[in-house]
Specification:
about 60 residues
Length: about 60
Amino acid sequence: MDDHVKKPAGPLKTCPICGKPQARAARPFCSSRCRDVDLNRWLKGSYVIPGRDDEVDDIE
């Protein structure tokens, strides 16, 4: 048996910002520009994880 057989590569993944193929250095993005765009969206509040209105904060 040959233990050095390469497994088939998975599907080519794309950048979540622009759709170009991912770059190894900027994974999961294609470039540092797209990585910075994503960071800026997080910092501006464009990405929001919704919460429920009936949640009670634990304030002690």
